[in-house]
Amino acid sequence: MHVVLVGMMASGKSSIGKVLSKTMNIPFLDIDKEIEFHEKRSIKSIFENSGERYFRKLESKIIIENLKEKKSTVIALGGGAFLNAAVRKNVNEKSISVWLDVNIESIITRVKKNQNRPLVEKKSDEEIKKIYEKRLKYYEMSKIHIDCNKKTKTECAEEIIFKLKNTGINENN
Ligand code: S3P
């Protein structure tokens, strides 16, 4: 069974995902990286030159394709991917979804340090907060919720493993 990490941009999906995959001894896949590899250009360039609609179509296609892989994998989704109903359906059928919940103040601080997030590039704090509030109801549809506030990535990964065990999932499923 795959483990799919869901949550706002900069919530730690990639960094916690890498720790998790090492600890569980299964591969790690970052969907944003897969998209960039497929397109041979950055996410920023895709947004700027082909638009968000194009990006979202490609994003859902690549996620659904990768979920078909038999070998259990830790998969980090992009922050907007779980809003798509087809993505949610496939994720729920083929994986355990885990929401990395980080408060919006920390998210805003973190996204401002990184220039590679076109969706929030020119947005005010208030606008970023609105995006987060709109998304919450989708993130809440994840099977496992992890409060990642004030925790290290190792602590978050350990909590995920603990909760996966409680749902009867382990590395051999
Ligand atoms: C997005 C998040 C990004 C990337 C794209 C759009 C979003 O991924 O997919 O810039 O809509 O939240 P991260 O969540 O890995 O930053």
- List the total number of helices: 7
Q: How many angstroms does the end-to-end distance come to? A: 5 Å
Overall, the morphology is globular
Q: What is the number of independent domains?
A: 1
Radius of gyration: 15 Å
CATH architectural type: 3-Layer(aba) Sandwich
Give average pLDDT, whole number.
94
Write out the CATH superfamily name. Answer: P-loop containing nucleotide triphosphate hydrolases
Total strands: 5
- The level of helicity is 40-55%
Helix/strand structural class: alpha/beta
Note the main sheet.
Answer: 5 strands, parallel
What is the CATH first-level class name? Answer: Alpha Beta
| CATH-assigned fold name | Rossmann fold
Which consecutive residue ranges, at least 5 long each, have pLDDT under 50? Answer: none
